Amino acid sequence: MNNLLNHGIVEVATLIPNEVKIANPKFNVDEMLRLLDNVIEENKLGKRQTRVVVYPELCVTGYTCHDLFNQHTLIKRAYDEMLRFAKLSNKEYSPLIFIGMPIRKDNQLFNCAVAIHKGEIIGVVPKTFIPNYSEFYEGRYFASSVNRVDDQIVIDGKTVPFTPNLLIEDTLTGAVVSAEVCEDVWVPIPPSKHHCLHGANIIVNLSASNETIGKSKYREDLVKMQSATSNCGYVYASASRGESTTDTVFSGHSLIADCGAIVGESKFLEDIEITYGEIDIENCENDRTKTTSFMTNVYKQKYERVCIETFAPVTDEFISNREISILPFVPHNIDERATEILKLQAAGLAGRLKKINCESVVIGISGGLDSTLALIVAVEAFNINGYDKKGIHAITMPCYGTTDRTLNNARRLMEILEVTSYEINIKDACEQHYKDIGYDKSKLDVTFENVQARERTQILMDVSNKIGSLVVGTGDLSELALGWCTYNGDQMSMYGVNASIPKTLVRGILESYAEHHEGLKDVLLDICDTPVSPELLPPNEDGTIKQKTEDKIGSYVVHDFILYYMLRHGFGPKKIFDLYVNAKTMHEKNIGVKEPVVDKQELLKNMDIFYNRFWTQQFKRSCMPDGVKVGSVSLSPRGDWRMASDACQGIWLDELKDLKEKYCK
């Protein structure tokens, strides 16, 4: 898995001819070659790097030949056409190909997936599970792979593997491909489960699955789940409407899944002949090794491994046609997910309060994003427990940098939510402290800022002691990653409800909440529109915020993107850089920018900040308070992230250095 080509992203495709003539192999192979030539041309032009293509089950003859499969004339002609297809497929930039064929061997007929590369048949995978129920009568014609006599077959004078346990490894990309045929995936323990446990990271399925009401959704869920539980890419190609409609209708349903996510699909009546998708095999491998239970119970089997080299890329530049979100933490269905996230946050806090027999909390309110979300979570938690909201003691603590806008929003928020509110100006307390430690407050440096942060925390803790309550922390996941918090100041609380919510998602949750709570809408939207700031430095002369967090530490959009792909997927800086550029470019195109330009130097500046701060600020995360995990990423030292506070970030910075030398000349 070292030095993966194209960052381990492998493009695959399903090729499903719309026109099929039953028992006419020459016509069908001509149609198959037509589609293959389209793929090869795209590869040649450098528009794509499609390395694996999959046709439907029994595509050479047509699936619905029925008793014609017992005719020697058909089987012989199909064999000849298979050889013709293999020969004519031998072109530069041709991918690894899987076609569906009936093949006679050992006095039996097998329903097979035939693997072809560079004009040669390199392996044959016979179908294992033969359906013989309802509309399926395959047992009338075909034998199961378990009935084969041996694991080899001679085709055109060459001996090749004949086994369901076949691994084909592309040594250029690291892709390890195995095949199964249609029904094989519909059984309790599909062959592909064993294939993946023995090293396959891409599974292809040559299928002829007819359509009935609701079946397409079930099929999609089946493929997604198979891909998710096996941490693999799954490429499913089903027979088209060109099959016989004597008793059934086929749809040409194509599905390409990557670790549980559908990345390519063509549906009924769309008649799309070529469906592309991308499989991230580095992600597959990272997930498998991270999930230590993955290899716990392996039933060891004998496997044949064939090594090939597909083709060298036209360009060394990163190529990906897969659209990914520039905001990976923010789901597309934000309204539905925002409600779920709030419920999880509130349930965590409600459970903690009930267990410690506490019916009151203290929370600092700044009029910013994080404290607003934390206050809403507290209200929802009190609703769950049936507590009086007056037990929520919300304290706003203005000082040098507080603007009228944020102070007024804090006041309005506390009033609308009908919690117990306090306003404590901390300026005098800070002045006294500066005097006590002999500090010149005109310096406006980190001491000037942190005195305020710690004074606020002291007030929250002291009020908590006074009334016997719990201090709710407001800091979010992005701030924890960057260490953008004052040690033993806002870094500390008794329960952090936002600890696994990144900044970009905080905004999304509040915007969604605003749309469903009319009384809060205006104040929440204004809070979302306010620049992110700790407000520790004096404002501008016109009273607006001067100290803007992103001016100091960079874009939260970039930081959250890095955080997601580093922690969730284990990717390094070079891959994350290319993924972000790709995502940003596609995002700009989607919003109407004709020729998007990504400022790569600015991106690298942000990445440099992230990778330096993430390592140097681990000591703050090592003693972070309790807080419930609600998403796929957490930095809790008791949960997802355990790291030495003095770990070295050198090798990550080396990758950044290479990028800077390339783009910052």
Automatic annotation (TrEMBL):
Binding site for deamido-NAD(+): 450, 479, 484-487, 620
Signal peptide: none
Classification via InterPro entries: C-N_Hydrolase (IPR003010), C-N_Hydrolase_sf (IPR036526), Gln-dep_NAD_synthase (IPR014445), NAD+_synth_C (IPR041856), NAD/GMP_synthase (IPR022310), NAD_synthase (IPR003694), Rossmann-like_a/b/a_fold (IPR014729)
Pathway entry: Cofactor biosynthesis; NAD(+) biosynthesis; NAD(+) from deamido-NAD(+) (L-Gln route): step 1/1
A Gene Ontology molecular function term of the record: NAD+ synthase (glutamine-hydrolyzing) activity
Residues given in the record as L-glutamine binding sites: 133, 209, 215
Record's protein name: Glutamine-dependent NAD(+) synthetase
Organism name: Intestinibacter bartlettii
Top-level taxonomy: Bacteria, Bacillati, Bacillota, Clostridia, Peptostreptococcales
Gene: nadE_1
